[in-house]
């Protein structure tokens, strides 16, 4: 999913303690600690039909994985780039599972991981990263 808000008129939101706390309140973290790279931290709030979490901040909706990148790394996604899940779990909001790349990188991942989502050939979401060890 592109690292843009869902609304065409949206702008990057300012990071404030209230926005950050609201974000983390909606994330179901594992018990392995604040920087667990193994487990997906699932969004417990509203999601799109495709399963991507959406987060309301500063009067607009944005994708949870984009907010996770911004909050976890303290930087916006650069123009022309997208936030990508390395875990293939759409509602995952673990900043350790989000990387920056091009839309071409994102499409390459989709084809390489058989995540086309076409008809009855939709594969199960994710991999073992979604399960705590």
Task: Spell out the blueprint of helices and strands.
Layout: H1 17-25, E1 27-28, E2 42-43, E3 54-57, E4 60-63, H2 64-73, E5 82-85, E6 98-101, H3 103-112
Antiparallel strand pairs: 1-2, 3-4, 5-6
Keyphrases for this structure?
133 residues, alpha+beta, two-stranded antiparallel ribbon, 3 helices, globular
Question: Which sequence of strands runs across the widest sheet?
Answer: 1-2
- H/I helix tally: 3
State which percent range the strand residues make up.
15-25%
Largest sheet: 2 strands, antiparallel
Domain module tally: 1
The low-confidence parts are 1-10, 119-133
Radius of gyration: 14 Å
Approximate shape:
globular
What is the total tally of β strands?
Answer: 6
Q: Output the structural class.
A: alpha+beta
Which percent range fits the helix content? 10-25%
The ordered string of helix (H) and strand (E) elements is: HEEEEHEEH
- What is the straight-line distance between the termini? 28 Å
Report mean pLDDT, rounded to a whole number.
79
What do you see in this structure?
Residues 1-10 and 119-133 have low confidence and may be disordered. The chain is globular. The chain has a two-stranded antiparallel ribbon. It has one domain. A hairpin with a 2-residue loop joins strand 3 (54-57) and strand 4 (60-63). The longest helix has 10 residues, at 64-73. It is α+β, with helices and mostly antiparallel strands and 133 residues long. It has 3 helices and 6 strands, in the order H-E-E-E-E-H-E-E-H.
């Amino acid at each position: 999913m592109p690292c843009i808000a869902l609304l065409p008129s949206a702008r990057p939101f300012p990071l404030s303690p209230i926005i950050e706390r609201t974000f983390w309140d909606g994330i179901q973290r594992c018990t392995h600690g604040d920087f667990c790279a193994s487990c997906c931290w699932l969004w417990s709030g509203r999601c799109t039909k495709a399963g991507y979490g959406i987060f309301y901040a500063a009067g607009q909706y944005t994708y949870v994985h984009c907010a996770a990148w911004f909050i976890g790394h303290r930087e916006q996604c650069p123009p022309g780039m997208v936030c990508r899940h390395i875990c293939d779990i759409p509602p995952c909001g673990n900043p350790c599972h989000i990387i920056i790349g091009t839309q071409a990188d994102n499409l390459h991942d989709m084809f390489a991981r058989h995540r086309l989502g076409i008809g009855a050939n939709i594969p199960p979401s994710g991999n073992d990263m979604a399960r705590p060890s």
